[in-house]
Design goal:
The chain is of the alpha/beta class. It has twelve helices and seven strands. The two termini are 33 Å apart.
Length: 306
């Protein structure tokens, strides 16, 4: 396990609460953030894929950051997604995160234009880093299934060399153990933080020197994740990891973002959590029944929301 990581441990890719008109409900989102921090989360990756960030406008994303801080969510605990296809928007959001007190920001690649060269990617990130300036640390978000742009070990090496001390780590949502391991083996010795984006890889990667996880399922299984993190090298952690992995498999057995919102709605007793922006759809009754059956059968016990 990598020691002294800025976001070391369990980080939830936080859901965004919405009203019936699809506007953002900051009060409910903040309440969920407090529940996460009270139930095993070390950090909060807001405005990511699970948070429907790419269905939110730039002004809405700023409202989320400012609104959560105003409601008492510690900025230092947040790792907001600030990467967009436009340099100017990425810089604006990253500077806002820094201004509010976030220690880091998570950046997707500029994902609209496909098959960019490593030189083109390097130009993009160099430009962002130079314009953002300041002390905020940047984390890469590797999710090639969505972005269609993977980050190679060679590219990361070039980026780190060009920007010493600025790029602190990566969230790897490839779901590929060998890919994550390659990042760990190449860079962890120098303090580069590798975070699993798949709960099933948490313990295997901790054993190799990763920093923890940033996952969607942590919206509901964070207490289990914390148990694995605290016991990554013993039998208690191994047992917890089996249940953690089963919960992950349950939430991806149906469309994941509405699945997580459905589970939170049940746990809070608040059906407004089912609100979701298109193109996502609420689960059908059959999907909901299947989700509850597999999730409850995983062996997890969920702490009730206040």
């Amino acid at each position: 396990m990598l020691k002294d990581a800025l976001y070391g441990g369990i980080n939830a890719a936080v859901l965004t609460a919405m009203n019936a008109d699809l506007s953002i409900d900051l009060d409910r989102m903040a309440a969920h953030c407090r529940w996460l921090l009270a139930n095993g989360c070390n950090g909060l990756a807001v405005l990511g894929t699970t948070g429907e960030a790419n269905s939110l406008g730039i002004s809405e994303r700023i409202d989320v950051l400012e609104g959560l801080v105003k409601r008492g969510i510690p900025a230092a605990k947040m790792l907001p997604g600030t990467g967009t296809t436009a340099i100017t928007d990425t810089v604006l959001l990253t500077r806002k995160a820094a201004e509010l007190g976030c220690r880091g920001a998570l950046l997707l690649p500029p994902f609209y234009y496909k098959n960019p060269s490593d030189d083109g990617l390097l130009f993009y990130f160099n430009e962002v880093i130079q314009r953002v300036a300041g002390d905020i640390k940047l984390y890469l978000y590797n999710f090639p299934q969505q972005s269609a742009i993977p980050f190679s070990v060679e590219f990361i090496g070039r980026l780190l060399k060009a920007n010493p001390g600025k790029v602190k780590g990566i969230k790897d949502s490839s779901g590929n153990y060998e890919n994550s391991l390659a990042y760990v083996e190449a860079f962890a010795r120098d303090g580069f933080e590798v975070y699993a984006g798949d709960d099933t890889l948490l313990k295997p990667l901790l054993e190799k020197g990763s920093a923890g996880s940033i996952t969607a399922a942590s919206n509901v299984n964070c207490a289990l994740g914390a148990e694995v993190y605290a016991n990554w090298n013993n039998a208690k952690g191994a047992a917890a990891h089996e249940v953690l992995s089963a919960t992950r498999k349950a939430v991806i057995s149906v469309p994941m973002i509405p699945a997580l919102k459905t589970l939170v709605a049940r746990n809070t007793g608040d059906p407004r959590w089912l609100n979701i922006r298109p193109p996502h759809l609420k689960l059908t009754e059959a999907q909901t029944a299947a989700l509850f059956s597999t999730f409850d059968g995983s062996g997890i016990t969920l702490a009730k929301a206040a």
